[in-house]
Amino acid sequence: MKTTVTADTFDKAWDGFKGTDWRDKASVSRFVQNNYAPYDGDESFLAGPTERTLKVKKIIDDTKAHYEEVGFPFDTDRVASIDKIPAGYVDANDKDLELIYGMQNSELYRLNFMPKGGFRVAKKILTEHGLSIDPKLDEILSQTLTSVNDGIFRAYNSNIRKARHAHTVTGLPDAYSRGRIVGVYARLALYGADYLMKEKAKEWDAITEINDENIRLKEEINMQYEALQQVVNFGALYGLDVSRPAMNVKEAIQWVNIAYMAVCRVINGAATSLGRVPIVLDIFAERDLARGTFTESEIQEFVDDFVMKLRTMKFARAAAYDELYSGDPTFITTSMAGMGLDGRHRVTKMDYRFLNTLDTIGNAPEPNLTVLWDSKLPYSFKRYAMSMSHKHSSIQYEGYETMAKDGYGEMACISCCVSPLDPESENARHNIQFFGARVNVLKAMLTGLNGGYDDVHKDYKVFDIEPVRDDVLNYDTVLANFDKSLDWLTDTYVDAMNIIHYMTDKYNYEAVQMAFLPTKVGINMGFGICGFANTVDSLSAIKYAKVKTLRDENGYIYDYEVEGDYPRYGEDDDRADDLAKMVMRMYKEKLDSHELYKGAEATVSLLTITSNVAYSKQTGNSPVHKGVYLNEDGTVNKSKLEFFSPGANPSNKARGGWLQNLNSLSKLDFKDANDGISLTTQVSPRALGKTRDEQVENLVQILDGYFTQGGQHVNLNVMDLKDVYDKIMRGEDVIVRISGYCVNTKYLTPEQKQELTERVFHEVLSTDDSEVMHTSNI
């Protein structure tokens, strides 16, 4: 049903919009700058849910609950496709019930078969659910498909294989897409696919010099062009003509959903974030409100319908996936607020509407609602956001000013959990990110002390290095050894990442996501760290206390004894916090010395998702924590295991209140970890004040202070452990921010529930000897 797109089409679609610099070349950023209306008011304008909305919500909730009991349906005889899978509806018998169309599959919660990342893994997922691939499809794919994993394992060198075997570097490779690419999906709403396809064709024609780089770029542009045509076909399945621009806010939301769901049909959902959508939709909404096209209640209903569609996103996962990303997150990170370079804040009514969905259709982990915080945001909005966090504990906050200083612009958004991107940046910097795997920096340090032998098993040499033989560890000796271990670690990690992303481009290029981005993009390559706090605290113990080594009959260190006191990272003590800054700087400088695939820029991530639990189970004792150890029969004993803290969190043993934690985090240099410095924190309401109003007011002031002095991220949980402990352990619905994302705790593994409840739940804001609540206090 595609119609002819003419100049009159654009005149009608853009009627009333200001500015010209966004019309001749696609730029949602310039469109926003010319047209958005900062909103200084409060939430009093918001509307509640409609009867239709609640009916749709019940169908979605009931369907999911049913499949959680009997098992989800899977595609077994067709490969994921944007436009070859039929249209899906919440209720196939009442298609008019929906306002915003577009789903991942032909029926609600049916899971797509995605073999391009790893064919064997995709088949294993089916096997784990008691299913099998259609024999004819299996035969065809076995003979014709080369998956990303196939290519990666062909190229891995011995160092990478050793690191993978020892679990010093894990997630090599991941079977899902590499993630961290955020399309500007509002481009489809503002311009339509026909405009975007013509722009891609012009850029393809403009490349005349034939060399390796341009040959690859011409092929990529061609794949993007084809993907846009598939998006048009996908819209047509629902009777929608997305070749043209949207004419009103309902169509704008609809077009964004078609663009986004097209991605989710073929990209395996690791960090398939939504991006900076609310501010664009608000421009359409304000025009429609002024014209009387729609009421506030209708616009909220469109948003509610859209968010419910986002919440239906689900991917087929292998059982092992939960060890790293527990709770089946989809990371539909949606960014809002922030500041403009012209000094105007970027809070809009649409930001309120998206946050309002937590009330209208209920609290939920997705989409991953993210507020770009700045002390200059309107007080009414900051108070509303804090009030919603107090109620729901499902919003995260990122420091706009901190990220802007490192080149992230006014339309920057958050990808996955805490990682900033600037998709339309005109200086081709930070547009997309390539991510994959994480390193266990503590395990690398402990392995180095033992001369390169695995710190748990001791029978496997991971890398060559002279061991530290001292009975009492000397700080300078340990630091020199650690420095050499980091050389090996970063060399190996960079080799692995370059291979992963070369092969992903070759065998599973994300054409549809890239189709909604500028053709020439600047790339971040994200390198993650796990075990950060334990590494810093170990160095602090060695430097400021007396650390004795306990060795076995072969001279290998299996444990440590510490005499004396020492500062821990997270206590607002510069002695420890300076060590934290040093570790980050060492790691970043070593990464910067390497040449990265496609000229990418190395960025460091202090973010673990829930993989901190898995890493803990692969690491031996350190001077500051009890890890796993071997029994006499050689089996691994985890009975005394102390879990790593998540992300950039201080250890649970760090003394001090919530403010001490925040102060330590704010000292870290974002330029050395500009992929994200993730802090997941739990604070008791009574620590914030006697009344709810006082608690909300204090939250506003604390976040203002934290982000003003350099903080980058905070996951905010306002709750008492005693109020949620039993619910978590019984598997009831408890929504928490867990490590960069939000999760319903009923989907966590038993170990991850245990780790969550062992975290510090701050009952005081600041004290030299804070009282903290652990499960042992209940």
UniProtKB/TrEMBL annotation:
Its EC number is 2.3.1.54. It is found in: Cytoplasm. The keyword Cytoplasm applies. The modification Glycine radical is found at residue 740. The gene is pflB. It catalyses: formate + acetyl-CoA = pyruvate + CoA. Pathway: Fermentation; pyruvate fermentation; formate from pyruvate: step 1/1. This is Formate acetyltransferase. Residues 8-629 form the PFL domain. NCBIfam families: pyr_form_ly_1. Keywords: Acyltransferase, Carbohydrate metabolism, Cytoplasm, Glucose metabolism, Organic radical, Transferase. Homodimer. GO terms for molecular function: formate C-acetyltransferase activity. Belongs to the glycyl radical enzyme (GRE) family. PFL subfamily. Transmembrane segments: none annotated. Residues 645-765 form the Glycine radical domain. Its main location: cytoplasm.
